[in-house]
Amino acid sequence: MSDTLHIQHEVASHGHSGEPHVHHHKETFVSKYIFSMDHKMIAKQFLVTGIIWAIIGGLFSVLFRLQLGFPDQSFPILETFFGRWAEGGKIKPEFYYALTTMHGTVLIFFVLTAGLSGTFANLLIPLQVGARDMASPFMNMLSFWFFFAASIVMLSSLFTQTGPAAGGWTVYPPLSALGLASQGSKSGMDLWIIAMTLFVASQLLGGLNYISTILNMRTKGMSMTRMPLTIWAILFTAILGVLSFPVLLSGLVLLMFDRHLGTSFYLSDIFVAGQALPNEGGSAILYQHLFWFLGHPEVYIIILPTMGLASEILAINSRKPIFGYMAMIASLMAICVLAFLVWAHHMFVTGLNPFLGSVFVLLTLLIAIPSAIKVFNWITTIWRGSIRFTPAMLFAIGFVSIFISGGLTGIWLGNSTIDIHLHDTMFVIAHFHIVMGVSAFFGMFAGIYHWFPKMFGRYMNNTLGYIHFWVTLVCAYLIFWPMHYQGMAGMPRRYLDKSSWVSFSQFHSLDAMITVATIIAFSVQLMFVFNYFYSMYKGRRVRTQNPWGATTLEWTTPIHPGHGNWDGEIPEVHRWAYDYSKDGRDFIPQTEPVGENESAH
Amino acid sequence: MQNFLIFAILILGFIITFQIARASEFVSVIRGEEKTRKQTNKINAALLLVFLIVGLFGVYWAHHTLGDKILKLGSSASDHGILVDRMLKYTIIATGLVFFGTQILLFWYSFKYQESDKRTVYYFPHNNKLELLWTVVPAIVLTILIGFGIVYWYRITGAAPENAMQIEVTGSQFKWEFRYPGKDGVFGKKYYKNIDEAHDNPLGQIWEDAANHDDIYVSGQPMHLVVGKPVKLIIGAKDVIHSVGLPHFRLKMDAVPGTPTTLWFTPIKTTKDMIKETGNSKFVYEIACDQMCGAGHTGMRGEIIVETQEEYDQWMASQKSKYAQMKASAAPAAPAAATVAPGDSTAAPASVKAPADTAAAAKDSTGK
Fold first, then answer.
1. Superfamily of domain B165-330
2. How many alpha carbons fall within 13 Å on the CB side of residue B271?
3. What residue in A sits closest to B122 (Cα-Cα)?
4. Complex ipTM
5. Half-sphere exposure of A40 (CA within 13 A, CB side)
6. Where in chain B is the domain with CATH 2.60.40.420?
7. B70 contacts in chain A (CB < 8 Å)
8. What is the nearest CA distance from A286 to chain B, expressed in angstroms?
9. A337 CB within 8 Å of a chain B CB
10. pLDDT, tens digit, for every residue of A79-125?
11. Chain A to chain B, count of Cβ pairs less than 8 Å apart?
């Protein structure tokens, strides 16, 4: 670690005597931990809230998998906790659908969007671009508190008399517009819409901040092409969010109007619960367009940051530059642009114009190309490296493996001819869970294990980390791989009981096995959460400023960075972020000027 | 008591794991952190290789146990389904090659290039030739897949042939209703505000339209199709979005209230053929609702019988038109059920007036 000592010396001797940058303002408990405007604290707030939601959303999946795996059994303990929703110890259909809906909503939006981007964008942007804090620390604080408010409203929807939204996380009208059609479309649906409105506000406040900070507040020498890939990924993620979340909001506003103001944006020719409704002229498909215009970029909002995190962690722990840095940026950009152009591949079987369908097939399969480039680049990054298997590195490698598995089935579904058969079957469930529910989570775990020392000045326990990785990896494949076969048998998704069907009742024992694997996987995640909170206070202390031997700027701050991150001047950057094993040196930090005898890269 | 014991065991198991993990940190300090780290590294590298081998075996094993349970590729019961199966085959080959290639390289490299004193790292930041190679090759493969896919898609979604028989399918919470156009081959007009289940008008048919008089209504019974004869389904829904899922035919089309959709195909295997082919005497073509539609979504099941022309004609001959049934029933024709006032559609339903109470309302409200 001679390079680390070298750097520490450099910073100390080059610190200019000028105005001090450490503001000694008085901090109360409230201003430091609750209404904090420090990006590092806000990142932790996002992460902890995300973790709590992940436990809730994961618990929901354990519950509904009990029904799927053991449809003939009753579990009296369920009635103890859930009363009339699980009468006789069996999960009622209304409860099942509420569980699946909230599982999706909570995990996609609250955990993988807010909990993922919110955490890492806030933590890493100022530290890696060399800024004291975000462009607007106040807006940043608001973005967390709007997220918190959204969480409270969504949580409250779980406790209403008629239950939370139950029409699937996609909440298609007319089902979600008509309380007459479903219990969950009563007050629970109103609360869902309100919560999501607050959530969209949070995302916009955050996203605009991330973009302005990255574009405007980079330190001296940090050109765009010297930024680490994490920042590039987060930049494109923020652009995706800022442009697509408002469209979701518009769709939800129209839905709210249809629900309460007698409008007919989505409703026409409805005869429900024994009565004909007066609404005519609306199109339920309109909602789907508005929803998926966000819905598709949303999944890229989820995966792009994890791609950035994985690129960083793979390079650092292979002691090699990320392969094809410029191609990686170009592919991130291509994914960002194409993400806006493929939404109707979720709508191939709605009866849309076949020509339109073919256009979306073309664009959807195009998006596979930049994703493929990234996978090949990751594999080439570890080739001929010297790999160090920290828990973060294992999760990053696992991320690549699972992304390959899940991404390839996207090519199946993006082809409309195949989608006619596989749409709304378990095959789709397998695809998106592997790519979002596992791969994105693995990227998130990798990020948490890797940057935990930066967040808390301590390490997470390695042994628990290894157990977490291996058990989750195996269980994830056990759970989702066989679902492809269920889909290929035509088994629909969102079905809670297959016993009355001739065509799909052949998977009883498989469903039971999947449920057992789900319970094990969930338990191991609880162990991870314990590791996280325990290590925050009792983890092994970090003793060196740069424990991973990384080149990026966040490791040049003190071990416990305060407000303003750097004690003296913000360091100046002279090179890109990936000089690992160059010219025989283990690594060269970004802050080191280019030497005369250095080879070009 | 049993629950408590299970819970206690789980908690204990967790505490044990945690204590081992904590202890391992102290042990590593005692034995020398560097040495422990190197050893753990070797173990994880080995585990990655083991995972690759176990994983590949798992892929084989999954196919071995589950391969028979899927709809076998090439066994489609419809002409369009043959194209779907063919597309699946090409896609499996293309993605399968990539899957095995990349996974093997990923895990093999992870093992082979583990930290070692014997090797130095190769500084390899970029190589444009490689980037070009793995941009162009996937683009070519995907273009081929897109090409086939779009050609087949246009064939499947194209116009139905002139001689196709037509069946109207209506989804509602939580059943399927079918309507045949009868001898005149024309569906009579309908309007949803005319729906009156109590008076034999579940689809809201406008009885003044003569074309309705021979339309045959089927519910709670299978849909009958003729093998080798193209059929065009005209699909709609009454309340929320449903979807007509036909797994054996490899087809699917959403049923949207207010927006009729169509799906056409030719069944090529009779139900009796399938009973023989699958060896399952209980085989039946099923219609699965493939769009979340409420609490009864799982039970929204329909059946299809594919038979010869003679069998179909025999069945058809025994069917009475809905109009005839309606006229034959005792109650006077009293149409439209009460409509809700515009406004809050989430309000409790207005009480539906019993037919006997309904005044002159009869003919006037059968609007166009």
1. Cupredoxins -  blue copper proteins (2.60.40.420)
2. 19
3. A384
4. 0.93
5. 21
6. 165-330
7. 485, 488-489
8. 11
9. no
10. 999 999 999 999 999 999 999 999 999 999 999 999 999 999 999 99
11. 418
